Structures are given as structure tokens and as C-alpha cells.
Amino acid sequence: MKELINLINEKLDEYMQITYPESIFKAMKYTLMLPGKRLRPIMCLETAKILGCDINKMLPTACAIEMLHVQSLIHDDLPCMDNDDYRRGKLSNHKVFGEANAVLAGDALLTFAPQLIIEKSEDLSMTQIVRILHEYTKFAGAYGLIAGQVVDIESEGGKLDKTKEHTLDFIHLNKTAVLFRLAIRCGAIGAGADDKTIEELDDFAKKFGLAFQIYDDIMDEISSFEEMGKTIGKDKNSGKLTYVSLYGLDSAKRKFKTLISECYDIIEKYNSEVFKNIIKKLESKVGD
Ligand code: GRG
To answer: What is the CATH classification number for the domain harbouring 28?
Structure first.
């Protein structure tokens, strides 16, 4: 896993060149190069690998997905959204570069990512590139990330009916699971997988994404700034609809475990140490 992370970091650094006007490229590169876990690009590359594809083919797409993820983090931290001063253990983008530059850096990452896929995916066919761009545009916009964020904001301060379980699942399928789906679906498309395989792995991604969000909600209750690299306890204080606020800590843990066990069932036959290690790490942090 360390090797994969190093490869992704090396490529992100290579793709994200600082050029004129330097202020915007520096703002884009700042959050991008902070030490994130790189889960989405790892999953994109690992999916390609378990389906028999050379991971080098998928490096531009994997890095583009990390750029989209970083865009969502930069915008999520803005004062008009979650208003967070810290991200990945350091000051958030707008605290360093100012709000206007943070908005623009996010916009620039959002648009540079597909540019990168088009310019650098020499080893993919035109059909594969178009399919990957279709997944990217669908999941990044109002049919994905933006839809999740809108309903999430609307859930603050108890404005939505908190008994509505499906609202919570809608938020997190769109806000969180969507980027794991994008990563895994693109890895499978790059490997030339058939529709049945793509849908099976997509099911894994949805379940993993929901489990990951429950993990994140639990960590917001039981973890520390040092471990998570961001302000802890904010969800509770803002009255946000989360798995812990809706079900309580113990039930949230049970739901996490059920989803994780379903993930194991799906991924078992692919024999992937990388996927298993990612899941095990989350399980160990959530505890019993
Ligand atoms: C796409 C135009 C456009 C807007 C985005 C702001 C927004 C709309 C969506 C917010 C999405 C968001 C920040 C969801 C949170 C998901 C989550 C749990 C992120 C943390 O992921 P980690 O722990 O982070 O993998 P690292 O830093 O390790 O990469």
C-alpha cells in the first residue's frame, strides 16, 4: 500500500505543475499534496489490477479522481459550507489563500481533472475515455456530489425530519459513496470489465462508501484532531444529521459492521490484499 501511495503522490506532483498565474496553481497544489489517505486513487488502481489491467494505464484517471475529492474538501471547508479551519492536519485552503482563491482553486481542480484524463490517457481507447468522462461528470455534479452536499446542508439544525433514514442514506450515497463508486467503476472500465462485473463492484463501492461515512461519523465522536487532521465534534455541535445522531453510537457501529461484512462477501473472490487492508484498518479504528 505504501508503494501505491508513493506512486500516486509522485504522479500528483508531476501532473500538477506550478505555472502562471502561480497563485492559483499553488492554492490547487497545497491541499492536493497534504498527506491524505489516497483511498480513492488506490481503489481505482487496485480495481484495475484485480481485473488484469496494468495500473500505469489508470494513473491519470486515479489522480484526477483525487483532484475531484480535494476540490470537494476545499469547498466543504469554506465558511459558507462547513466552515472548517483545518484539513489533513494543516490550515484549510481558504485560511491560507483566502476565500476567493479557495473557491477558484476548487473550480480549477474540478476542471483540470478531466483535462488530465483526456491529455494523459494515451493507453486507453477513445471509448474508454468517453465512458470515464461520463462517470466523472455525472458523479461530480447535481446527480452526485452536489446533490449530497445540498441535502446535507438542508439537514443542519434539524431542518429535515431526522426520522427519515433514507435522507441520511441519500446524503451519504451522494456525498461520500459516489467518489468510491467513481474510482472503482473507472478502474473497471479501464480494465475492460463487463457490465455484470462493473455492477458487482459498484455494489461493493456503495456499501463501502456508506460504511466509510459511518466510520467518519463515529470518529467525529471518539477520535482526536491528531488522528483525523480536522476539527472533531463539529457535526454534533451543528446539529447535523449523522449516523451517530440518528442511531446512537452503538447502533451506528452495528450498521458499520453489517456493511463491512457485506463488503467482504463481495470482494472475497477477487483476492485483493489492498482492499482487505483498507477495510481492516477502518474496522480496527471503529473497535467493538
Ligand atoms: C463537485 C462542484 C462540486 C462541489 C462539491 C463541497 C461538496 C460539493 C461536497 C462535499 C463532499 C465531502 C467533503 C464529503 C465528505 C466525505 C469524506 C468523509 C471525506 C473525508 O475523506 P478521507 O478521510 O480524506 O478519505 P483524506 O484527507 O484522507 O483524503
So the answer is: 1.10.600.10
Atom of ligand 1 nearest to the CA of 149: 9
Q: What is the pLDDT along the chain (288 residues), one digit of tens a residue?
A: 899 999 999 999 999 999 999 999 999 999 999 999 999 999 999 999 999 999 999 999 999 999 999 999 999 999 999 999 999 999 999 999 999 999 999 999 999 999 999 999 999 999 999 999 999 999 999 999 999 999 988 887 666 665 567 788 899 999 999 999 999 999 999 999 999 999 999 999 999 999 999 999 999 888 888 888 888 877 777 777 788 888 899 999 999 999 999 999 999 999 999 999 999 999 999 987
- Provide the number of structural domains found in the chain: 1
> Which residues approach ligand 1 with their CB closer than 6 A?
36-37, 39, 69, 72-73, 75-76, 81, 88, 110, 140, 145-146, 149, 175-176, 213, 216
Q: Which distant-in-sequence residues (6+ apart) come within 8 Å of 102 by Cβ?
A: 27, 74, 75, 77, 78, 92, 93, 94
Peptide bond connecting 21 to the previous residue in cis, omega within 30 degrees of 0: yes
Shortest-distance Cα residue to atom 29 of ligand 1: 36
Give the domain range for residue 146: 2-286
